[in-house]
Amino acid sequence: xxxxxxxVNLHITEHCNYxxxxxxxxxxxxxMGFEQWKIVIDNLVNSGMVSAINLAGxxxxxxxxxxxxxxxxxxxxxDVSFISNGTCLQKINPLVASKLSCIGxxxxxxxxxxSREIGRSFPGGLVLDIxxxxxxxxxxxxxxxxxxxxxxxxxxxxxYKEKVGESIVKxxxxxxxxVDKWKILRAMPFGKVDSYCVSDxxxxxxxxxxxxxxxxxxxxxVVPECTLEHAYIVVDNSGHLINNTNGVNLLCGSLLSTPFExxxxxxPLDEKLYKAHSEL
Length: 280
Prior knowledge:
Layout: E1 6-11, H1 34-47, E2 50-56, H2 66-75, E3 79-84, E4 102-106, H3 112-118, H4 130-143, E5 148-155, H5 165-170, E6 181-186, H6 200-217, E7 221-225, E8 234-235, E9 240-245, E10 248-254, H7 260-264, H8 271-277
Parallel strand pairs: 1-2, 1-8, 2-3, 3-4, 4-5, 5-6, 6-7
Antiparallel strand pairs: 8-9, 9-10
Helix pairs in contact: 1-2
């Protein structure tokens, strides 16, 4: 739990402008609109079991009601954050930063060729503009100096030899901000495809080398995660609580019609794994 309640991840859209080869956010239902997400959020609030919501996707900033959803979560009294690929931040009114506790950005590599190989690029090969990202986050922090910045990195066969940490430490330094937390995740064999996965040894080596860089050159909290299974509370783009087991998304019930507290009675959450990553 976070504080006095759970953090729930709402995957508000499947749509994304990237095509990451390891992505598990492949759903079979159309995205819901604002009014339906209000029902889900109200369900979570009324349960008394939830203190925070993280918005994810796909790319959550592509949802046409992203700002309204953030504002509704905020006025409902819950902590709100999001995880984004960073490409759409400059298109969102930075005033929304005043409602957020954390801005999460996914960065797997600072090498354009590696990013393209992973699928983290636009059609035509254009990759994330890091300098633009740094300036945009600086603007957001003007509206909320307390908003934290988190980086997520998925370790796969394409980037496990890269010293990403050396670049993470430098992010934002010339624009008056720095990274607060770096979450290092291991690519999982979703859909039974594991050709992009790394071995235990390769993952541990990546964590060792990159954690060392962060400890020596910055004050970033590094959180490695070797599995996502049963470690998160996830709601898909149609409002279903889902359980990912063996790389398959299993529907556990709809939050549009069933109380959250009832669905959680049989939800296979590993409390130890959950608590290890749930802060910030």
